[in-house]
């Protein structure tokens, strides 16, 4: 019997010396008993796996002898249950039971680069590809069955991974018998792209949605139980033989570099060593606590750096008054805005401000990297492990094919957090000490030194004619760039490690404008970016934070629509319905208003007396192809300034729904995190450094502030390709709360966060 | 200066060598190899490191090894098993609570002690008992549903 080995199960856990040890690529043996029985369709399978390239069906789908299906996914599940949804899509197209599909994610040895977790495209782009690959795999398997059963394809049917004759179900062959243990050898029509836009369909057409049996079902996650029984490995739990622990040391004044490091100051700590290269300074030790002690005990003399930052209060003036580095129109420009403003009977203008925000992930980032002469192995919590691989390869100057990166779930993610930097730092530490290094940051480094969501200002103005009709609308975003460092760590200049060892810099630009379908007859929206406050090794370098720049833009744009409605003494939902053009947008707006029992009346409400007042607010957005409308109902304590965002009603349209249970959980998480960012979150800094360095100086929403209710209305369009749900519902939350506060108090707050102190001073 | 300590964790006594000021967290993770609890802040501000010491929820990131003495430490792994789950573990699975799940130790260990001592708590009592715990993914709604479900199971 011929046998081959493959990395079907990419790792196995072994108990050794009381510690968990990971054995990489522990093989599962495939039985090749049927290798010689494939007949004329043999050319569509191979005993040796074709190269892991985007144009090979084997790069996405494999079938084991027992009929188990592996779906190799180049994105990953950051906790929304995407793995379940992908498994549903694959099971549906292949006509196999859901439970027989194993989704293998985020391993550069088994999956191609589909962009990692990015832009809420897990299903929209990643799922689209896996769906196409699974459909093609089914087509190929049926073709193999034609040879085996001697019947034409139109006389065959597939159920539960078994192909049988329609007329005689006893005449059958299973997928396992057809190809189990061998690989598909089928070329796909790859569009030549990697990352999110990668698409490589085969000849098969995916199923008609009316035939779905698995897609659309509320199947639960299987990765919850291991977490609650503490049987689950996070990135922080990875241990490899010979591993030492690392810690990084950051300057007190941002931009300062070590000029003298006294290694003798830690000589009493077992195994403690210093790794120092220009601005890069870390320590390692055999035990984790010893590494922490060494990082605190090490005597370091820092360069006398000039404090790089303005006072916190001056940040919006910096943005306002600094000449833009880049300016770009966004959205669709319509008509002649300037001319319309000249003819306006009335002009309404407002400006809004949004602070720097931190990912503030639940735990500081962690990575384990083993740099050997001929091979580099990375365990990373980064949501884009293929790009982590590329970045480490570039940083160390080794070929990409000598670097293997494996994603292991980390302590939350939400964009370009500190995970990518941790992998790059650990790579330099490991290379220097010649051992595998497990690096975890400390809390002050996680919140203080992660790439930040950019601070910004937004200016909106509307021209009204004598009848109160909006004849022109202009909107500007101006802020720090969303990609001062890029949304992935594939280039050393986009990482702290690269910047600290002196690679040439390349700060990126980019912001965005509102996404909506207001049909104003003259419309111009644009963005501008200003340079970073400190160009190298900055704790205020800016990048992607969940729904990158979406919350700030739509806080402004949807607050402004409410301001215009209020100026016209109009109900805010009625105002929106007067101008919104897209039918799906109109549908979500109506659905949210109806579910919330929205009473048509202008804001603010009458009788604005008493200490505790309540109000309701509305906002609607598009995000890509997804639409969300939201009603917030809030209580405001005018004495303390405390807001309780008590109830939300969310109408959500992301096209075809793959798993309504996962979708509801995703929406709730979006809303709660959105409330937190609106009410509490602002990265504080002084002229030397970021001073938001823990959970007290960077507070997030507390249990006691959790809404009473979050109602969701899921609008399903089986006929429309699915779009994202990981971020869209974050986007309208701030504006809905701001509009509700206005409704309750008659006071318009144009600066986030709405912390009790800020609200109290706005109301006084 | 490292000293010898005997730690009673989930019913088993382990001997370790450690500095007296080393937090319990590092003994559990680094010396005993338990993949719970987690390091979140090291400042007792988030709860990710919570374990029970003689039945009381404590933050193992600031509790030194010398302060543990011969106290009985129970971690999430010692609270229940797939065969004999704690009602909170069952409820967490039923409600599909976690997103990333890194915060789980804080919520479950704190809620377990609270529900043991408080039968039929009101919503407000539950919220107040869990005050100060952090969940960055924003799964608060599911957490509260799960604690209520577990409270009902525990009568």
What would you note in describing this structure?
The complex is a heterodimer of chains A (764) and B (155). With 764 residues, chain A is an alpha+beta fold. Chain A folds into five domains: 213 residues, Aldehyde oxidase/xanthine dehydrogenase, molybdopterin binding domain (Aldehyde Oxidoreductase, domain 4, 2-Layer Sandwich), CATH 3.30.365; 63 residues, Alpha-Beta Complex (Aldehyde Oxidoreductase, domain 3); 126 residues, 2-Layer Sandwich (Aldehyde Oxidoreductase, domain 4); 76 residues, Aldehyde Oxidoreductase, domain 4, CATH 3.30.365.10; 192 residues, Aldehyde oxidase/xanthine dehydrogenase, molybdopterin binding domain (Aldehyde Oxidoreductase, domain 4, 2-Layer Sandwich). In chain A, α12 packs parallel to α16. The longest helix of chain A has 28 residues. The N terminus of chain A is likely disordered. Chain B has 155 residues and is of the alpha+beta class. Chain B has two domains: 78 residues, Beta-grasp domain (Ubiquitin-like (UB roll)), CATH 3.10.20; 67 residues, Orthogonal Bundle (DNA polymerase, domain 1), CATH 1.10.150. In chain B, strands 2-1-5-3-4 form a five-stranded mixed β-sheet, with helices on both faces. The mean pLDDT of chain B is 97. Classes of the chains: A alpha+beta (764), B alpha+beta (155).
Task: Name a few traits of the molecule.
heterodimer, A: 764 residues, alpha+beta, Aldehyde Oxidoreductase, domain 4, Aldehyde Oxidoreductase, domain 3, 5 domains, 7-stranded mixed sheet, 5-stranded mixed sheet, 17 helices, 25% helix, disordered N terminus, B: 155 residues, Ubiquitin-like (UB roll), DNA polymerase, domain 1, 2 domains, 7 helices, 39% helix, 17% strand
């Amino acid at each position: 019997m011929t046998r081959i080995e493959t990395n079907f199960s990419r790792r196995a856990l072994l108990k050794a010396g009381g510690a968990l040890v990971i054995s990489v690529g522990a093989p599962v043996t495939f039985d090749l008993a049927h290798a010689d029985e494939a007949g004329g369709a043999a050319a569509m399978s191979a005993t040796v796996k074709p190269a892991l390239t985007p144009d090979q069906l084997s790069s996405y789908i494999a079938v084991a002898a027992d009929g188990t299906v592996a779906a190799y996914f180049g994105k990953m599940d950051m906790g929304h249950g995407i793995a379940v949804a992908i498994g549903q899509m694959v099971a549906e197209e292949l006509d196999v039971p859901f439970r027989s599909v194993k989704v293998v994610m985020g391993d550069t040895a088994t999956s191609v680069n589909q962009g990692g977790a990015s832009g809420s495209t897990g299903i929209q782009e990643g799922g689209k590809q896996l769906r196409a690959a699974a459909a093609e795999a089914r087509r190929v398997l049926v073709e193999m069955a034609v040879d085996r059963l001697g019947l034409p394809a139109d006389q065959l049917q597939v159920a539960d991974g078994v192909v049988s004759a329609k007329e005689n179900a006893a005449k059958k062959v299973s997928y396992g018998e057809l190809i189990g243990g061998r690989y598909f050898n089928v070329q796909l029509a790859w569009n030549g792209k990697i990352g999110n836009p990668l698409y490589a369909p085969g000849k098969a057409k995916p199923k008609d949605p009316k035939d779905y049996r698995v897609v659309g079902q509320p199947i639960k996650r299987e990765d919850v139980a291991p977490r609650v029984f503490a049987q689950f490995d996070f990135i922080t739990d990875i241990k490899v033989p010979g591993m030492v622990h690392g810690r990084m040391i950051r300057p007190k004044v941002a931009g300062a570099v070590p000029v003298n490091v006294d290694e003798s100051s830690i000589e009493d700590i077992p195994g403690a060593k210093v790794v120092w290269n220009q601005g890069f300074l870390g320590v390692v030790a055999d035990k984790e606590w010893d590494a922490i002690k060494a990082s605190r005990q090490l005597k370091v003399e820092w360069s006398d750096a000039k404090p790089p930052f303005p006072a916190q209060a001056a940040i919006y003036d910096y943005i306002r008054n600094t000449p833009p580095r880049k300016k770009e129109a966004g959205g669709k420009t319509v008509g002649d805005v300037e001319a319309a403003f000249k003819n306006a009977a009335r002009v309404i203008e407002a400006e809004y401000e949004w602070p720097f925000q931190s990912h503030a992930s639940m735990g500081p980032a962690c990575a384990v990297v083993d740099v050997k002469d001929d091979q580099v192995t990375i365990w990373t919590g980064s949501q884009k492990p293929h790009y982590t691989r590329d970045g480490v390869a570039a940083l160390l100057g080794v070929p990409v094919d000598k670097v293997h990166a494996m994603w292991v779930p980390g302590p939350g993610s939400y964009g370009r957090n500190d995970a990518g930097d941790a992998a790059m730092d650990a790579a330099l530490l490991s290379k220097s000490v010649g051992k595998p290094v497990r690096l975890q940051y400390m809390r002050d480094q996680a919140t203080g030194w992660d790439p930040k969501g950019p601070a910004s200002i937004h200016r909106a103005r509307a021209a009204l004619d004598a009848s109160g009709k909006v004849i022109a609308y202009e909107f500007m975003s101006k802020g720090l760039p969303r990609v001062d460092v890029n949304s992935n760590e594939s280039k050393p200049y986009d990482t702290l490690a690269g910047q600290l060892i002196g690679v040439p810099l390349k700060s990126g630009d980019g912001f965005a404008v509102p996404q909506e379908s207001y049909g104003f007859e003259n419309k111009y929206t644009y963005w501008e970016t200003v340079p970073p406050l400190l160009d190298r090794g900055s704790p205020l370098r800016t990048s992607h934070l969940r729904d990158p720049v979406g919350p700030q833009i739509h806080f402004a744009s949807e607050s402004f629509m409410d301001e215009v409605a209020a100026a016209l003494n109009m109900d805010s939902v009625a105002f929106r319905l007067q101008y919104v053009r897209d039918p799906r947008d109109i549908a979500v707006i109506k659905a949210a208003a109806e579910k919330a029992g929205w009473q048509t009346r202008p804001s603010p409400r009458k009788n604005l007396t008493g200490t505790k007042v309540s109000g309701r607010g509305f906002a609607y957005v598009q995000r890509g192809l997804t639409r969300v409308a939201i009603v917030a109902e809030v209580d405001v304590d005018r004495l303390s300034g405390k807001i309780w965002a008590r109830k939300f009603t969310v109408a959500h349209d992301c096209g075809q729904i793959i798993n309504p249970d996962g979708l509801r959980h995703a929406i709730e998480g979006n809303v709660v995190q959105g409330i937190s960012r609106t009410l509490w979150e602002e990265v504080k800094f002084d002229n030397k450094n970021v001073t938001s360095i823990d959970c007290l100086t960077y507070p997030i929403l507390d249990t006691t502030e959790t809404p009473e209710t979050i109602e969701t209305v899921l609008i399903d369009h089986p006929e429309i390709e699915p779009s994202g749900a990981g971020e869209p519902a974050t986007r309208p939350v701030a504006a809905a709360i701001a509009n509700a506060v206005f409704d309750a108090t008659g006071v318009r707050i144009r600066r986030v966060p709405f912390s009790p102190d800020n609200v109290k001073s706005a109301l006084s | 200066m490292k000293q010898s300590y005997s730690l009673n964790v989930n019913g088993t006594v382990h001997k370790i060598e450690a500095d007296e000021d080393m937090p319990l967290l590092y003994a559990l993770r680094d010396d005993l190899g338990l993949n719970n609890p987690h390091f979140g802040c090291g400042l007792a501000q988030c709860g990710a490191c919570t374990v029970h010491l003689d039945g009381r929820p404590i933050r193992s990131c600031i509790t030194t090894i010398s302060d543990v003495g011969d106290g009985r430490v129970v971690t999430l792994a010692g609270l229940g098993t797939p065969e004999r789950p704690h009602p909170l573990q069952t409820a967490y699975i039923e409600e599909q609570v976690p997103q990333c799940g890194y915060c789980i130790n804080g919520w479950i260990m704190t809620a377990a002690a609270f529900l043991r001592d408080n039968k039929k708590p009101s919503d407000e009592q539950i919220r107040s008992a869990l005050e100060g715990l952090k969940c960055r993914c924003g799964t608060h709604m599911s957490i509260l549903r799960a604690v209520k479900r577990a409270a009902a199971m525990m009568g």
